[in-house]
């Protein structure tokens, strides 16, 4: 019996969520804290909807308490002929300067969902020169659907025609509630297209690590412009670097070097660097230890351990007194 419970205990120890996973989960719950909306099938339209959350999270999700920065940007550009979208530009620049693509790695519910799908045991498609080329397609999506279409046709192109997060959180989230049965009659070819695209992204995310983030997400492309100047993220000390390539090898994203525009700053590269050349920017303010994927229950108490004295030292101090 002890062996049986011992195996169960060991299984839970091996599968403890990392600190990053816990933060991702908390972010998803915080973004969708309107629990009431999941029961009544209504979109929350309170005061907090005037604020943008950092990650990709659909405005129309029944649980959403804030706006999606990407949706807000498209709507602002659509209305730019009548008013200047200063607030949306300002908030995105603020998020970018503070966090950059750290938002993708730590604060995006869509990223968390893809990482969980990737855990399904199947053959995986590894990154290569081909995936690196395709990773630039998200910049095409950004320019075409997030900027040009809203400006020229006053339509939020990405939300309207592509966004799988909107289809799942907004479309499926609302339609799955019995209170919205009447909406089913209004569905047409556009929803069918977006639903098929959602299914494709879900399936692809099982085989490709963060398929949507790497190849389609314009918000990640936007935050990528801030990677070098963001306050928080991973940084490489070139003076210590030996060009061993272990950091590039362990990373599942299509990076060429640590901290570039494809880096989501998950911190996986920090622990594998033999030269200790990789560390956190702003770690004195935000991070207390380098291993971002250490199990959440593991506690590092450097200050406490320094203050604690060994028993022999305590006895010596008592004798001196």
Question: How is this structure best described in words?
Answer:
By secondary structure, the protein is mainly α. It has one domain (15-321). It is 50% helix and 2% strand. It is built from 17 helices and two strands. It has helices spanning 2-14, 19-31, 35-40, 69-78, 86-98, 102-106, 109-118, 129-134, 137-153, 157-161, 164-175, 189-207, 211-215, 218-224, 246-250, 302-307, 311-320, and strands at 233-236, 278-281. It has a two-stranded antiparallel sheet with strand order 1-2. Helix 4 (69-78) runs antiparallel to helix 5 (86-98). The longest helix has 19 residues, at 189-207. The model is unreliable at 296-321 (pLDDT under 50).
Short description:
This protein has 321 residues and is mainly α. The chain is built from 17 helices and 2 strands.
């Amino acid at each position: 019996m002890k062996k049986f419970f011992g195996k169960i205990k060991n299984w839970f120890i091996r599968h403890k969520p990392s600190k990053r996973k816990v933060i991702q989960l908390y972010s998803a719950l915080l973004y969708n804290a309107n629990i009431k909306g999941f029961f009544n099938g209504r979109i929350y339209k309170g005061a907090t909807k005037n604020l943008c959350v950092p990650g990709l999270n659909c405005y129309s999700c029944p649980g959403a308490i804030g706006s999606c920065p990407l949706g807000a940007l498209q709507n602002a550009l659509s209305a730019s002929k009548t008013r200047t979208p200063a607030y949306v530009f300002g908030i995105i620049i603020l998020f970018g300067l503070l966090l950059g693509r750290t938002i993708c790695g730590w604060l995006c519910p869509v990223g968390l969902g893809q990482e969980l799908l990737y855990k399904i045991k199947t053959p995986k498609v590894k990154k290569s020169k081909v995936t690196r080329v395709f990773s630039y397609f998200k910049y095409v999506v950004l320019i075409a659907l997030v900027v040009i279409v809203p400006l020229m046709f006053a339509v939020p192109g990405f939300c309207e025609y592509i966004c799988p997060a909107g289809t799942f959180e907004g479309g499926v989230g609302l339609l799955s509630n019995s209170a919205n049965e009447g909406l089913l009659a209004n569905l047409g070819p556009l929803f069918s297209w977006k639903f098929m695209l959602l299914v494709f992204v879900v399936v692809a995310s099982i085989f490709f690590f963060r398929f949507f983030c790497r190849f389609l997400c314009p918000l990640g492309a936007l935050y990528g412009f801030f990677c070098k100047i963001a306050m928080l993220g991973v940084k490489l000390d070139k003076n210590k670097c030996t060009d061993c390539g272990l950091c590039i090898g362990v990373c599942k994203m299509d990076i060429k070097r640590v901290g570039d525009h494809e880096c989501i700053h998950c911190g996986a590269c920090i622990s594998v660097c033999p030269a200790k050349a990789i560390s956190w920017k702003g770690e004195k303010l935000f991070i207390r230890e380098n291993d971002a994927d250490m199990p959440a229950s593991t506690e590092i108490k450097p200050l406490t351990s320094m203050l604690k004295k060994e028993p022999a030292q305590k006895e010596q101090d008592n004798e001196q007194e």
